[in-house]
Predict the structure.
Amino acid sequence: MHRFSSKQIRKQNYIVIAVVVFLLAVGLIIHGYFNYALTPLNRQNDQTVRVHIPRNSNDQQVSAILKRAGLVRSRYVFYYYLQTHKTNGVKAGTFYLQKSQSIPEIVTHLQESTHAKKH
């Protein structure tokens, strides 16, 4: 049976602490970015953007449409938020959204059929 010296144990402890601190820092950075990406692109910009969500669009397609329309910072954050907060699913139709809306506000509009204008 191999016995570790106190110097070897101390070195292993420093490595473990460094890895834990690194992972914690990465987690905090990801969490901060996620929260930032949920906020509106520009709170002062009340510009209305017309967005058409085709029938049978999946959540990934919807997130790509909103990213192209300039309504969300990250389509991946939008997709993740939609997966974790979806209640009714995204409705098809034409929506009028504002750049001053946050992702939670946009999701609420996309899930309420009263906001969609059917073609």
Residues 6-38 form the longest helix (33 residues). The longest strand covers residues 48-53. The mean pLDDT is 88. Helices lie at 6-38, 59-68, 75-85, 103-111.
